[in-house]
Amino acid sequence: MKAEVLDGRRNRTVTTRKKIVQAFFELIREGHLEPTAEDVSVRAKMGIRTVFRHFDDMETLYGQVNAEMRKMVTAMLPFEYRSVRWQERLLESLEARYLLFEAMTPFFMVAQLHRHKSAVINTNVKHANELERTILKNLIPKETQADESRFEALCMLLSLEAWIRLRREQGLSFNSAMVAVQVALKALAP
Question: What is the DSSP letter of 117?
Fold first, then answer.
């Protein structure tokens, strides 16, 4: 078979896989907790058999969606601080942190729903938690980190789970939730 034909097939395969991943990603971002292969095929404007031909298991698809999620998070992570004191830096970074959390919430909800049956999702959730802790450790001085109870309280307060509780369970607006965190932060990090 000619190389041009093989290259054309490879390009179509790559394009089709990208469309499937993008459709799945968009459905989750819109709040669909369990998009089906049929939902994905409709969104991607292709037959359901094509979806199954390119992704024969959900683990592979979850892995690809996680790669897209990483790109989104990486694009939102860079942050320049104006303050010198670590407490002020924490407060300064809240809006950027919570804009990121707003974007991540639907993916987190899907992850929690499927975590028990997906090694890929379970690993990704653990990595996300480690990243949150690392970001916090880079902001907080070593002597404050040495106070384990205080550090763990800060980790919980600034976690995605706490944000989701404030927004969804307690029904706070974005600004009200941020103010609630600011009040708690000022008490924990005077």
Answer: G
The DSSP-derived string for 66-100 is: HHHHHHHHHHH-------SSHHHHHHHHHHHHHHH
CB atoms within 10 A of CB 51: 25
Domain region containing 142: 65-188
Q: pTM score > 0.90 for this model?
A: no
DSSP assigned state of 116: G
Structure tokens at 52: 């199954």
Cβ atoms within 10 Å, residue 21:
21
Q: At what angle do helices 86-114 and 119-139 cross, to 10 degrees?
A: 170
CB of 16 closer than 8 Å to CB of 23: no
Q: Are residues 11 and 90 in the same domain?
A: no
Whole-angstrom distance, CA of residue 36 vs CA of residue 124? 21
How many Cβ atoms are within 10 Å of 80's Cβ, its own excluded? 6
Residue 2 burial (CB count, 10 A):
7
| Contact present, 39 and 27 (Cβ < 8 Å) | yes
Residue 105, pLDDT above cutoff 90? yes
Q: Does one domain contain both 35 and 71?
A: no
pLDDT in the model for residue 4: 59
